[in-house]
UniProtKB/TrEMBL annotation:
This is Cysteine desulfuration protein SufE. Belongs to the SufE family. PANTHER family: SUFE-LIKE PROTEIN 2, CHLOROPLASTIC, SULFUR ACCEPTOR PROTEIN CSDE. It holds the Pfam family SufE. It comes from Actinoplanes digitatis. Transmembrane segments: none annotated. Residues 14-136 form the Fe-S metabolism associated domain.
Length: 145
């Protein structure tokens, strides 16, 4: 899957090749992989809410001077599937360039085979998270001189 950062491609391949009964277990592991927010973002200041998610979900992407992207996600512990989307993106996009993230396919979660394991509503929420993340990056890229 050369159309995405290597770490994310590995995660996608792991999910796509996993037996269906293991997928939910794998998702739960990623729900624990969401790094804590830094103090300055704890009140969601400067973060964008993703209203398409069934639960409160906030994100922020910042393109650094070296063109890598720093991401922050916040979602309640009581929403493990939604947190798993954040964990997958946090781990899979770590150290990736803005261009590499913008090239991530919008049907990422279908490529992972998640459509057979979780509801379409949750897939839509995950797709919205990726879409808003990419929009934030695109806006920052467009604002560069």
């Amino acid at each position: 899957m050369s159309d995405m950062p290597p770490k994310l491609a590995e995660i996608v391949d792991d999910f796509a090749s996993a037996p269906r009964d293991v997928v939910l277990e794998m998702l739960l592991e990623f729900s624990d992989a969401v790094p804590p927010l830094p103090d300055e973002l704890k009140g969601h200041e400067g973060m964008e809410q993703v209203p398409e998610c069934q639960t409160q979900f906030f994100l922020r992407a910042e393109v650094r001077p070296d063109d890598t992207v720093q991401t922050w996600f916040d979602c309640p512990l009581e929403a493990p599937t939604t947190r798993a989307f954040a964990g997958i993106l946090a781990e899979g996009l770590e150290g990736a360039s803005a261009g590499a993230i913008l090239a991530v396919p919008d049907d990422l979660y279908n490529r992972m085979g998640l459509a057979t394991a979780i509801s379409p509503l949750r897939i839509r929420g995950g797709t919205a998270i990726l879409g808003r993340l990419k929009r934030q990056i695109r806006e920052q890229e467009d604002a560069k001189p």
